[in-house]
Fold this sequence. Notes:
Number of strands: 7
Largest sheet: 7 strands, parallel
Distance between the termini: 45 Å
Oligomer: single chain
CATH architecture of the largest domain: 3-Layer(aba) Sandwich
Amino acid sequence: xxxxxxxxxxxxxxxxxxxxxxxxxxxxxxxxxxxxxxxxxxxxxxxxxxxxxxxxxxxxxxxxxxxxxxxxxxxxxxxxxxxxxxxxxxxxxxxxxxxxxxxxxxxxxxxxxxxxxxxxxxxxxxxxxxxxxxxxxxxxxxxxxxxxxxxxxxxxxxxxxxxxxxxxxxxxxxxxxxxxxxxxxxxxxxxxxxxxxxxxxxxxxxxxxxxxxxxxxxxxxxxxxxxxxxxxxxxxxxxxxxxxxxx
Length: 247
């Protein structure tokens, strides 16, 4: 099975960078570009910078939200240029490439890139199973968006050419899709509300974010999601039997 890899640009502000990303993708054999709420697209600057990758650019899918972009994706990585205080798993881009290719042979995989000025927010990163770092000088580690796409696409192409583990899909069930995980988190949040389990941190807003992060690191498959949701449903049912009216 050919790998299905989506390059996802979140809120790109400069249309020229969209075109540069499309050209970088075509150079390295990638053809699925997804744009989340781009500031300007289509645009002549995007077409000019695509320079021979008009087919990739013309097939780009524009969606209003990251959730829509990732709906049917399973393995998801997000690029980042800065250290994050939260406990995200971070992998060097060269080490990550074979895993992305391998997972993309059994279910769609996505690589996320953030807006030019701000990158990806912590809430956007929560959709990822791991963060990808591109080595760069500590004096100025931020890369141009088109350049970042080029480097990641190159590592994916290089990993594919090397063969070996990257050529075969991993054994076992595919990871749960982003939509299935979204439904799990919504269910989890509802049960926490039902049982009045409150966030004990000072701000009172970190509990679900932490739950999301450790479950993303666990890389659940579809069956495991069903097990967890079955447990959550049983908790809700037990409370109703104890006299709590259904919400």
